[in-house]
Fold this protein.
Amino acid sequence: MEITDVQVNLCAGTEDRLKAYCAVVFDNSFVVHNVRVIEKADGLLIAMPSRKLTAKCPSCQYKNPIDTSFCGNCGSHLRDEATIKRLQRDTKIHFDVAHPINPHCRQQIETAVTSAYLAAVSDGGNADSARPRYHQGDDLD
């Protein structure tokens, strides 16, 4: 596996811990969107794309995040505040959509994304990296 491109989109504002979103291309064939660069006290964290765990509304079957009180579609009451707090404390609410399955792959991704992020920051974010190249549905042949 080879990382053939990393597109960095810097986030506006320097006060937020979220510094950038990236698209990582593997072997000029497969792209992973929404890889995040997050600033921590001890350095940068490269976070893989994730989404919230969902559960269906008993009334309309609409999928809602498990930490919501009311259905986003029909407005039915789903959970009380105490249940939501317990879920947030005891349940992993976010899960990775894509992630490396071994330490070598994780290190390759972290190195490539960190290098691309630092290059984009030193370039002032004015480079070609600000223009999206890989969108869902784009034909990459």
Observations:
- The first helix runs from residue 81 to 90.
- The CA atoms of residues 38 and 45 lie 5 Å apart.
- Residues 127-131 have pLDDT under 50 and may be disordered.
- The helical segments are 81-90, 103-122.
